[in-house]
Amino acid sequence: MNWIKHILICLGYVVLLGGITSCSLQSRIKKADRHYAIGEYYEAAKQYKQIYPKLDSKANKQQKAGLAFRQGECYRVLNSTNAITCYKNAIKLKYQDSIVYLRLAQCQQYAGKYNDAAKNYTVYLQNQPQSYVAQAGKYACEQVRNWQKSPTRHKVTAAKDFNRKRTSNFSPAFIGEDGDALMFTSNRPLSKKKNKISPSPVTGKQTFNLFSARKDANGKWTDIGPAEGLFGTGEEESGGEEEQKSDSTATEKKGTLETGVCSFTADGMAMYFTASQPVNGQDLGTQIYLSTRTGGEWGEPQQVKLFQDSSISVGHPAVNATGDTLYFVSDAPGGYGGKDIYRAVGENLTWSDIQNLGPQINTGDDELFPVVRRDGTLYFSSKGHPGYGGLDIFKAIPAGRDTTYGTSKVPLFTLLNMGVPFNSKEDDFGITFEGKTENGFFSSNRDQKKSKNDRIFHFVLPEMVLAVEGVLQDEQGEPLSDAVLRLVGTDGTNQKVPVRRDGTYKFKLQPNAKYVMLATSRGYLNQKQEVTTAGINDSRTYKQDFVLTSVSKPVKMNNVFYEFGKWELTEASSQELLGLVKLLNDNPNIMIELSAHTDMVGDSLSNLVLSEKRAQSCVDFLIRNGIESARLTPVGYGENMPVIASEAIHKEHSFIPEGQVLDEAFISSLPKEQQEVCNQINRRTEFKVIKTTYNLY
């Protein structure tokens, strides 16, 4: 029976070991959950990753589903595409809260998987049909391909002066309105010494601080370094070992202060910025501080008190040009969900009348990084409004009147997504403008495979140059240097445009205007053209040439054709004859003779009759298109008026001498192929001006 005893003992050890292992695993889950609860997402994700494969999905299915969801939440906050796998695991394990579909859809949209995201937004909306965030997300996924086809004129490039490998750099802000100095947030080392600071348990990255930069005479940003005078330099400020021992009353251990996301008054002498400082290893949220500049350094910062409850986090300050309105971000109770944008009135450290900007601006997700320009236009980034994915930059234009939300009266805005190239499927945020220009900087973590570090991008709005240019010439291609071109536009333009000696011209146009252009020259008929710049949103040079018709010479109409041996016009003739209609309308006082000519093949009398009918067919077309019959005289010449070869004909057909009459004697002397060329030249429709005073007297 000893072997039975040994088996029972071994089984007891296995059961005991399993119980210990299970207790240990549950303890680790609780520890990871504590990190998650206080927002230390990097540390929580790291621990969840180790725990997840060890948790039995059969015995602990719902617990494992919850762990997978929380792990996904951590990765989502950290902008890691691993979140997609975690949310899918949670769904596979039957996670019972439908929000998992919303989060999965948001991460798929962030990854540019718009079709998959739209499907999961739809699933979530079946459970939460009133969710604006899901409605906006689904709409965006369905429209994003069309949006991408209509970028703005802005040109965006990486701002190499500010960016550094393996660091995040974001939220630049100009110091004052001169545009020659700015501040930005970065987690680069504060000095050349080796950075011994542990990574943040929230982000897994080094501590963030404010850095300043100045523009030199060549337009290059230099003197990049920590903001002078601010506390939170990242250096240890505690005393030596003996001093620490003597301070027996110290109960709190303060971590390294992080500073970032700042805003300046118009004169650049006061700065509001975000700061946080963990105590006893715990992140206590962020607060807003004010520092004023004396000389080249920033003075001791003072905390800006906005809420009576000090546990409420506030950050991302944005002060208006007059310094009497402060916009900021908070997760204060009573908001619309996530982080909301608020505003307060006052100055310096005294602020009151705190108001949530309402559902026009805020959604059930995060609205962050407000920036306000001198004209009151508010810029911010949102995950809740229809966008390309991640944070998108929006422009909120004041409507000039207020509205009431709850107990608050706040301004109405017209909201616009800034579009491509500002926004991408990743996070785009922290915009700043150089004075009154449409040039500046913004932040994004786009175009990176793994790191997702934030980088600063420079944007410019090139001048939109609209112009029209061309040449004025006669029908032989000779420039008309003495021609006159008059422009009349809906923008008030009414002037003569100089024509150069070579007959060319160029004129600058204005946006959203319509122009009528009239070309005139002595001995030639007038020609009118129109150009419109309505709806044009990029630089363009229109090409508009003028070929003026001589008053004294017959004009051949090259593209008038008839059915073989008949007088009916072909469809291909319409465009040429409509051009003649326009010419007659541009010159309402002329009368013309319209003539048709045949070659010398066949009976001469039959050719004469055929040409008369062809001329009449052309006149009938002109009358049907509004030309008075009194201005038109049809004539058929048959084969009686052969062409006299011009210089142009000689250049095109070298076997025909210039000045040669293409009569029967000459044509008969040529080879058969050349005879056909001459017959084709003789077969023609022409018009010539016979009077220029119609209806003048």
Mean pLDDT: 88
Helix count equals 13
Q: Give Rg in angstroms.
A: 40 Å
* CATH topology name of the largest domain: Tachylectin-2, Chain A
Helix content: 25-40%
Number of strands: 33
Kindly report how far apart the N and C termini lie: 140 Å
Going by helix content, strand content and strand pairing, the class is: alpha+beta
The stretches of 5 or more residues where confidence is low (pLDDT under 50) are: 1-20, 232-251
CATH architectural arrangement of the largest domain: 5 Propeller
Instruction: Output the CATH homologous superfamily of the largest domain.
Output: Glycosyl hydrolase domain, family 43
Shape: elongated
Describe the structure.
The protein is an alpha+beta fold. It has four domains: 29-148, Serine Threonine Protein Phosphatase 5, Tetratricopeptide repeat (Alpha Horseshoe), CATH 1.25.40.10; 155-190 and 198-231 and 254-460, Glycosyl hydrolase domain, family 43 (Tachylectin-2, Chain A, 5 Propeller); 466-548, Immunoglobulin-like, CATH 2.60.40.1120; 555-691, OmpA-like domain (60s Ribosomal Protein L30, Chain: A, 2-Layer Sandwich). Helix content is 26%, strand content 29%. The chain is built from 13 helices and 33 strands. Strands 6, 7, 8, 9 and 10 form a five-stranded antiparallel beta sheet that branches. A hairpin with a 5-residue loop joins β4 and β5. α3 runs antiparallel to α4 (82-92) and α6 (114-127) runs antiparallel to α7. The longest helix is centred in the first third of the chain and has 36 residues, at 2-37. The chain is elongated and about 115 Å long. The protein starts with a helix and ends in a 6-residue tail after the last strand. Mean pLDDT is 88; it is low at 1-20 and 232-251.
